[in-house]
Amino acid sequence: MAEVSLKNVVKFYGDLEVVHGINLDIAHNEFVVLVGPSGCGKSTTLRMIAGLEDITGGEISIGNRVVNNLPPRRRNISMVFQNYALYPHMNVRENLGFSLKIAGKSVQEIDDAVNDAANILGLAEFMERTPAELSGGQRQRVAMGRAIVRHPDVFLFDEPLSNLDAKLRTQMRTEIKKLHQKVKTTIVYVTHDQVEAMTLADRIVIMKDGHIVQVGTPLEVFEHPVDTFVASFIGSPPMNLIEGTINNNKVTLSDGVTLPIPPKTGNSLSDGQKVIYGFRADILMPKGHTLAKGGQTADLDLTIDFAEPLGSETILLTKIGGVEIQAKMHNPRPVKEGEVLTCELSIEKSHLFDAATGRTLKV
Amino acid sequence: MSKRTKDVIIWFVTFFIMLIICLPGLWIILSAFRPNGEILTKPAIWIPQNLSLDNFRAIFGMGDNVVAIPVGSYFRNSLVISTTSTFLAIVIGMSGGYAFARFQFPGKASAFLWIMLSRTVPGIALSLPLFIIWSRLGLIDTPFGVILVYTAINVPFTVWLIEGFFRQVPHELSEAAQIDGCTRWQAFWKIEFPLAKSGVVSAGIFAFLTSWNEYALASQLTRSTDSKTLPAGLMDFTAQFTIDWAGMCAMAVIIIIPALILTFLVQKHLIAGLTFGGVKG
Question: Would you state the CATH architecture of domain B71-274?
Answer without folding.
Answer: Orthogonal Bundle (1.10)
